[in-house]
Amino acid sequence: MRVFVLNMRGEPLMPCSQRKARLLLKSNKAIIYKYNPFTIQLAYATGEAKQGCRIGVDTGSKHIGLAVTSEDKVMWKAEVELRQDVKSKIDKRRMYRGNRRYRKTRYRKPRFLNRKREPKWLPPSLQNRVNHTFHWIDVLSSLVPNPNLHIEVGKFDTAKMINPEINGVDYQHGQTYGFYDERYFVFARDNYTCQCCGKSKDKILNTHHIIYRSNGGTNRVDNLITICTDCHTSQNHKKGGILYKWQEQHKKVTQYKESPFMNTLRRRIFTAYPDAKITYGSETTPKRKDMGLNKTHYNDAIIISGINDINENDEEWLLIKQFRKKKRSLHEATARKGRKKPNSSQVRNSKNTPYYKGFYLNDKVVVFGKSGYITGFTSDGAYIKDGDDNYITLPNKNYKQVGISKMKFECHNNNWQYIVKTTV
């Protein structure tokens, strides 16, 4: 990957090679502007011949592909993992706040003045992904000269994905149209037959959630199945029971929540970036196959950028993941391992400390010649994971803690992890 360069006034210049960046830094002709994405700033006046740079963005609900190209060169490529846990974190916060009103603590009155929503309001889980998509587009646009933005968006017809033969007035009717409720629709779909034992006569039928609601399952008919009362028992619901095993076997229940998000994101991209060139997946896929690139998000971004011939494409690429630096709640609903009683006195556990002896959570450090990230602290050490999410431990030792004295600081990373990968 190439290194982003800024002039003395902080304006972007053409990215340079890693070797040239090292020479400039060693000769004190440049300083490190920021580590991620790695950017240097020149300390002397220089010529400012600039070529056009193209930024390719492969949008998605779980991953974003990013690439910077110029003429026939791929200068930088990356893949961003978007957060998928926002809704579960908000649900947990709601539970803690509700429980707190019934304990002998400071009473938190319900609020009703915060119910008004803005005209373009989105649920927090969707707004978070929209914000991060726009954030990385703006970051790259500020680091390259004369950026020419190319964005791939998605347009989906969710009703036709469920029923390809839908037409006309059928769009106004849901899957359960004509049935008393979802329960009777599930029975009719399954031919009034228990899907566990296969019997239908003289049996009382129930509807069963394939993925339990406590594990994130929904009340949608795709997550419901017909079960008789003989099979729908508490024993079968427990771990090891046949219904519990279904939860793992049928984990991939058809979901359509990504399609509405992509439609929403597309409309907001039109508003936020009116000068961007918009493409669709039907155009990207054949071009990528013609150029012999594998199916990855950053390779899609390379094609989206509009490049026609590739003569320079480094094997290195950047994986960017968001890191949650600390748990927000001081209260613990259940006692943590090692505690004899719940933490009701609101004292932070040492593993939940955001910094210790000059080191912060998510700092990049070097231990035993390996580079990793601090994921937690102990009484006199830290837990460190590498880019593959494996603990870095002492040689020939089983415990995971590493002493502070054995860590060498590299850089702060705030809430993002930047992992350099190599194409296989």
Short précis:
This protein is an alpha+beta fold. The protein has 10 helices and 21 strands. Helix 9 packs across helix 10.
Descriptive notes:
The chain has 424 residues and is α+β, with helices and mostly antiparallel strands. Among the domains are: 3-42; 53-85 and 121-153 and 280-319, 2-Layer Sandwich (Nucleotidyltransferase, domain 5); 176-249, no CATH class; 350-416, SH3 type barrels (Roll), CATH 2.30.30.60. Helices cover 24% and strands 24% of the residues. It contains ten helices and 21 strands. The strands form five sheets. Strands 5, 6, 7, 8, 11, 12, 13 and 21 form an eight-stranded mixed sheet that branches. A five-stranded antiparallel sheet has the order 19-18-17-16-20, with no helix packed on it. Helix 9 (281-290) packs across helix 10. The longest helix has 18 residues, at 124-141. It starts with a strand and ends with a strand. The model has no long low-confidence stretch (mean pLDDT 85).
- Tally of strands: 21
Report the span from N to C terminus: 16 Å
Rg for CA atoms? 27 Å
- Helical content stands at 10-25%
The largest β sheet comes out as: 8 strands, mixed
Structural class: alpha+beta
Write down the CATH class of the domain at 53-85 and 121-153 and 280-319. Answer: Alpha Beta
Q: Could you tell me the strand content as a percent range?
A: 15-25%
Tell me the CATH superfamily of the domain at 53-85 and 121-153 and 280-319. Answer: Ribonuclease H-like superfamily/Ribonuclease H
Mean pLDDT across every amino acid position: 85
Name its key features:
alpha+beta, 8-stranded mixed sheet, 21 strands, 424 residues
